[in-house]
Write a structure and sequence with these properties.
Radius of gyration: 12 Å
Strand order of the largest sheet: 1-6-9
Helix content: under 10%
InterPro entries: Trimer_LpxA-like_sf
Order of helices and strands: EEEEEEEEE
Largest sheet: 3 strands, parallel
Length: 69
């Protein structure tokens, strides 16, 4: 995994009235019951500078996230 400068893996949704994290995986919603949950990042992923991953993001192996996305 490679995180470039300024990349952020957020772990809390403070903009929602109910900040409980729900993960969407293979078309299924998974209720985590957690108020804080970062990201699951697969082997060989590359996350560009100043990219932001929302709480509950799942990145499969070798995913590339563009800079500023």
């Amino acid at each position: 995994m490679n995180l470039e400068a300024g990349s952020i893996l957020a772990n809390h949704r403070n903009e929602l009235p109910d900040p409980t994290i729900v993960i969407l995986y293979e078309g299924t919603s998974i209720e985590t019951g957690a108020l804080k949950f970062g990201a699951i990042v697969g082997d060989g992923c590359r996350i560009g500078s100043n990219a932001v991953l929302a709480p509950g993001t799942i990145l499969p192996a070798k995913t590339v996230v563009q800079r500023l996305s």
